[in-house]
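Board notes (copied after class):
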Amino acid sequence: MSDTITQQIREELAAVLGCEPGELAGDANFDDLGLDSVFGITFMQRINLRLGVGEPLDLTARVQTIDALAAHLTEVIDDVTAGGVR
């Protein structure tokens, strides 16, 4: 599932930043990619809608790469799927 989530993150981030998903390295810091606080909120709104999660809109300030965000969201989705509460 993590590869699918990573691809969805890349697609949403590319849409917000106006680039191609393939241009976004998984280990690049969001700040270095040009994701400021306003774009970060827009990006997280899109991620929450697309993945059906309710993560904080400022999450990219703490989880700062595509790979780290994918790992975090995989854990969140796995917890919810297993019946856990986040």
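Comment from the instructor: Residues 41 and 58 are 6 Å apart (CA to CA). Helices lie at 2-17, 30-33, 37-51, 66-81.
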